[in-house]
Design goal:
mainly alpha
Length: 544
């Protein structure tokens, strides 16, 4: 058995793709070059000129591919049999490296996602992402269904990974890896591993959290609770991180608050990537495999079958579901019921107990990928636990919320971050096209608010002024039971999301509307983590 040079096999995959999509890439790259020219920066290392040579950029991208390839381990690129330059590959028994899945998402048909050569305004956002990351990421293309949200997300994501204070870029990337691993999001873990290496991070850290400095290992409990039980974060936990005995293990308060925001950001982003079925990028090690000719033919037939299934055409009876939902929304909007605080608490408790009685996601089978991701975790089996029988809220929003409390503390230490987070929450809550499936000019405010509140119910947050009665029961609830089950899965057990779960709700709706649900759930979960985390941070200072 002879080892192939890794770059050759990887290069063959990319050259084929480049030939097929060169015209598409040219369009994005030309705009990217103009952006570089505007910023007095050139990825090729030449002086800025008015003439742009696309082949130069391809050479640059090839170099990046080579750098990325060097970071891959145990890729098992080999061929069997004798090597003969005069024989064709098939006769030599060469095993060809192939992408496992060329689709952007396992849940959403490719034709539903805006392509890179679109004339849509989203092209400028695609270009911005390409310039920053030297790739157009799958998650960016899925978010591209909602350009207004994508714009604020890109700004926030870039700022959060920008080195500030004593936290270097590799350190920020590693914290992001820890957060994504908590929800077993292979896509984000591999993406941030590459960025960690490209930023000059110590490769030994990627062998497991035990190889990272003790200061980072100490974040494991905070990471675990933020993801699965944020109400368990206390002032004592914050104190252990800031005032620990070993000087080199202490976290500065400004850095620790940045860590809390970063952990919450990537944990919630993991729910989005898993909830929308984002597939690994083609240059991820786990995104490539070998397949024989027959296997390739079977894969093609399987792909055609899947595409037919994905091309869902609403059945006539589904129209009744849309009308029924619109009727419930109208009823919720017109109902201006006064209720006492005790009634509010009772309705909250009922909605909460109902949420916890929903069937849990099926137990997933462990895989080699799970074993790989657990290297970044302590107590990897810790997960969200339904607190059946627990009626009281863990956090009353009127006592501590984002708008009045958490935002102001974050803005004191990280004003730019606080501003972007606040804008992102506002844009998410206001995001609407006034459509619902095939209906136009529809006010979806109550529906969007219901999705947001349902996520916060799952994490024991209660608002005095919200009528939880509109989320209870099956007949009159704003949210149908399959939708509730999907929201619970993506926020509490995102690693267990399946295409069946994704297909089970809103069968008559567009994929962009289902992505919208994922965005709402993602941001609601982010706010949950920030409220609990920043509250504990505040309590620590009061305690001092």
């Amino acid at each position: 058995m002879v080892q192939f040079p890794n770059l050759n096999d990887i290069s063959s995959v990319y050259k084929t793709q480049q030939q097929q999509e060169q015209s598409t890439n040219e369009k994005v790259a030309v705009v990217a070059h103009k952006q570089y020219h505007k910023n007095n920066s050139n990825p090729i290392g030449k002086r800025n000129t008015d003439i742009f040579n696309f082949s130069d950029l391809l050479s640059y991208v090839d170099t990046l591919v080579e750098v990325n390839q060097r970071s891959m381990t145990d890729s098992n690129l080999y061929f069997e049999g004798s090597y003969d330059d005069h024989e064709d590959e098939q006769n030599r028994g060469v095993r060809i490296l192939k992408p496992i899945n060329e689709e952007i998402s396992s849940f959403i048909p490719k034709h539903q996602i805006l392509p890179a050569d679109t004339d849509h305004p989203t092209l400028s956002l695609y270009t911005e992402s390409f310039v920053d990351n030297c790739r157009l990421e799958h998650m960016v293309m899925v978010m591209g269904m909602h350009p207004k949200y994508l714009e604020i997300f890109l700004k926030t994501n870039t700022l959060l990974l920008k080195a500030k204070g004593s936290l270097s870029k590799p350190a920020l990337c590693y914290i992001a890896i820890m957060a994504a691993a908590r929800h077993k999001c292979s896509y984000l873990v591999h993406l941030m591993e590459q960025q960690f290496i490209n930023e000059g991070g110590d490769r030994s850290w990627l062998k497991g959290i035990q190889n990272a400095p003790k200061k980072f290992r100490n974040l494991s409990t905070l990471n675990k609770f933020l993801a699965h039980a944020p109400w368990r974060i206390t002032a004592d936990l914050i104190e252990q991180l800031i005032d620990c005995r070993a000087r080199e293990e202490r976290w500065q308060h400004t850095d620790l608050l940045q860590v809390i925001v970063l952990l919450c950001h990537f944990q919630s982003l993991s729910t989005f990537c898993l909830g929308t079925g984002i597939n690994l990028e083609l240059d991820h090690e786990s995104g490539l495999t070998y397949e024989e000719k027959e296997a390739a033919n079977n894969a093609m037939r399987s792909k055609e079958t899947i595409e037919k299934r994905l091309s869902f055409i609403p059945l006539p009876e589904h129209a009744a579901d849309v009308e029924e939902l619109m009727s419930r929304m109208k009823k919720a909007d017109e109902t201006e019921e006064d209720f006492s605080l005790s009634e509010n608490k009772e309705r909250f408790a009922f909605a909460k107990q109902e949420a916890f009685t929903l069937a849990e996601a099926e137990e997933e089978t462990s895989s080699s990928e799970d074993s790989y991701l657990s290297r970044y975790l302590e107590d990897p089996d810790f997960s969200f636990q339904d607190e059946v029988g627990e009626k009281e809220e863990k956090l009353r929003a009127q006592d501590f919320n984002w708008e009045d409390k958490a935002y102001h503390l974050v803005s004191q230490l990280h004003p730019e971050v606080a501003e972007l987070l606040d804008d992102k929450f506002r844009i998410t809550n206001d995001l609407t096209y006034k459509t619902l499936a095939t209906k136009n000019d529809v006010d979806t405010t109550s529906l969007r608010r219901g999705i947001w509140m349902y996520v916060q119910i799952l994490y024991n947050i209660r608002y005095d002024d919200y009528n939880y009665g509109v989320l209870s029961g099956n007949e009159n609830s704003l949210l149908e039971r399959p939708l509730k089950a999907f929201i619970k899965t993506i926020t509490c057990y995102p690693e267990k999301v399946t295409k069946e779960k994704y297909d089970s709700f809103w069968k008559q709706f567009k994929h962009s509307e289902k992505v919208h649900v994922n965005i709402m759930a993602k941001e609601a979960k982010l706010q949950v983590g920030l409220m609990y985390g920043v509250k504990a941070f505040t309590q620590y200072y009061v305690k001092r």
